[in-house]
Amino acid sequence: MAQVRDHDRASVAEGDERTYGGELRRRYATGKGSWEWINAEELALARNQARGPWAEALSGVDYPWLCWNVDDQWCLVQQRMVRSVGWTPVVGFDPRVGPPPLVEGAILIDFNEGLDLPTMSMMFPLEFIFLFAPRLAFWHSDLLVREPVFRQLADDFRGLADGETAATDIRRGWWRRLIGHRGRYWELIGCNTRGASRAQYESGCGWWRRPTRHPNCPDEAERAARRRYMHDHGVGILIWEERAGGTVHPIPLRWVEEGHCSRVGNKRYQSRSPRDHRRDLSKDLSFNYDLNEVASQLGLSRFLTGPGVNERTET
Prior knowledge:
The protein is an alpha/beta fold. It contains 13 helices and nine strands.
């Protein structure tokens, strides 16, 4: 697998600054997971890749957990944590960064192969879980979780019946919902089963932005009803629960929010990349957070090092 070299990343970034907009902007937005921006050709290709090479890579894997690389060292900590609870790390990556080293037993998948989008986030493959895995746990690239909580979540995810979903709960209280502010389920950490993923896709819901634009949204009346919801990632899971009878097990945000190393709630956060679809966590994450300090604060220092790391190679 070819790596993205530093000079290639630099030239791409410079070109983006000069030409960002139009088709390039659409392709960046597509890589983040949006029904508003993906075209029919890209959707067909993604589905073919999911039922083909993605599914082949995970054949026989019962408990895959997606770790999305934006920074090699952060991704290695996540991989080690996933291995420690008996799940298999499935490693995807932002194409601007490339694949990280892998811990023993981890599976690398280039989810962007054939699509060749300028960026891709973990949101992209979440929409197609029903085509390539019996279930898939996932978490943000900038999230670490205290070990007792992580072990509990791993057990909970393992116990999900097919057709059920677990997701971080940021729904609004009833008083906010009365004025139309419903909130959403968040992909900060969660797990989806094959049956739930299929039901979500068939009912035009799911993880991507703008579920009003989903090709399987049943009719105009339903489309109008969905406009009362927000348009962000994960709102389709809330719609699936409320309007299609789906089963979602909520994960309290308070369980995990202390380890979310993002700009959310951090007044000192300094963005080193554009605050649009070009956002690049490889520039932002380690600039704002020291991995050693975060791991120490959360009691995770033992995951900073570990055996069984295979250096990535070019093919």
